[in-house]
From TrEMBL:
Listed transmembrane segments: 6-28
Protein name: Uncharacterized protein
Entries under InterPro entries matching the protein: Cyt_P450, Cyt_P450_CS, Cyt_P450_E_grp-I, Cyt_P450_sf, Insect_CytP450_Detox
Family, as annotated: Belongs to the cytochrome P450 family.
Superkingdom per UniProt: Eukaryota
Organism taxonomic ancestry: Eukaryota, Metazoa, Ecdysozoa, Nematoda, Chromadorea
GO MF term list: heme binding; iron ion binding; monooxygenase activity; oxidoreductase activity, acting on paired donors, with incorporation or reduction of molecular oxygen
Gene3D superfamilies the record matches: Cytochrome P450 (1.10.630.10)
Cofactor needs: heme
UniProt binding sites for heme: 463
Keywords for the protein's UniProt record, in alphabetical order: Heme, Iron, Membrane, Metal-binding, Monooxygenase, Oxidoreductase, Transmembrane, Transmembrane helix
Pfam families: p450 (PF00067)
Amino acid sequence: MVFVILVTILTAFVGVLSYFLYHWSFWIRRGVPGPRGFPIIGICNITYNGDYPPFLRIKEWGKKYGPIFGFTEGIKKTLVISDPDLVQEVFVKQFDNFYGRKLNAIHGDPEKDKRVSLFAAQGYKWKRLRTISSPTFSNNSLRKVTSTIEECALELVRHIEEHTAGGEQIDMLHFYQEFTLDVIGRIAMGQPDSQMFKNPLFPHVRSIFGESRQKLFMIGAISPIMIDIMKWFIVNVLPKKQNESNVIWSTVESAVRRRMEERADPDRLYPEEPQDFIDLFLDAKSDEMMDSIGNEGYSIRNHKISKTLTTDEIIAQCTVFIIAGFDTTALSLSFTTYLLATHPEIQKKLQEEVDQECPDPEISFDQLSKLKYMECVMKETLRLYPLAAPANSRTCMKGTVIGDGVRIEKGVHVVANTWAIHTNPKIWGEDAEEFKPERWLSNTDHFLQKGGYLPFGLGPRQCIGMRLAYMEEKLLLAHILRKYTFETGAKTVIPMKLVGRATTQPTSVWMLLRPRD
């Protein structure tokens, strides 16, 4: 009996080990170069460690292994591509074969999750959510929220005045995060007034981008089944206040259900115009005939897409917009601030443009479009610091061949080596590593086409909030630069120390803000 038990245990051990070795050797068997890591975990210990951002590692590996290389993270297989033409092919030309995004098991199954977000959804669900969400970010919709965003900008300027009265430095990263959470709370969640520097949700949203979930991501890459068990425990057993995600979900759910109750009250007069994202999603009740995406095979022509969202789907979309709108825009503002402070001649030129185009106390939507040099500054910042590079990934949904015979099997993830592409001298010239906003003043088409510039992704899944992010940045920077000049000080870390896994971020951006004459 003991012998049988031992044989069974040994057989099970060998079976499990063989299973992981088979996945770990995937790229070795195909002759594709790349970092191997260790059996079972692959390179999870590197890609899920935010002390040194994984996409900076990938940039370094590209120099060592070439424009195409592969690695494994547990049972996940990833192919990295650094050729802009291949990026264009995967993200645009063969989108039918790459319409999924690389996700960790913690995101759940996008086909079964009732609360799947636009970021994680794929196939028909993604197309449906994208169709419903797109009007929120049109120029017409953004024009309507300009005054609300400006109120948030002026509130931040007021806090800046309070904290810099004595000539002390402030961490602009923190200030920008307070601003972006306030904006998204006002335009997405029905928040009636500013909660800047007193928002109880702030520490919970901020922690999402910390390293507290590193081990969960590693477990998810190695054993998706284990992560399902742990997620069930977190959601159903762990007190909600002990889990950051639960706090955010609960807050959003309460806001959505409260709005539904208000709208159901026959005695309450409700504005015809949507007041925020919740209203927009609750009003989405019509059907629309259009080409759609099927979960089984991409194209299903003339399929009627239901634009009615479930309560769970509304909660999911509002949640993902809070998380996405909080960190990325704050980081872009932070990197821009650092570059302006370390390039005073560029900052002065930008201030001159702001003074000329925005002479009135209030800044209108139309005036923002005249800030051409500011747009160049923002684009150049995102070229040097493509902070959301992890979103530039796709999953092969159907085996195919790209480029000159590069075969990609179903289930393999493809990641664009964004940091390498953005500083490739063949695309950007010998000054590719330099901060030169002027490069965007003319002849920009060849930068933007064929996968050479990816701060917001590329193709049909390009970031839906791009225009909102640009608008927030322009409004806030214009108001700040009219009154202050960014300068480095004793606390400023030069060069910046970059950390992060989900996004690439500086540890801090301490600045002196000198009042202008």
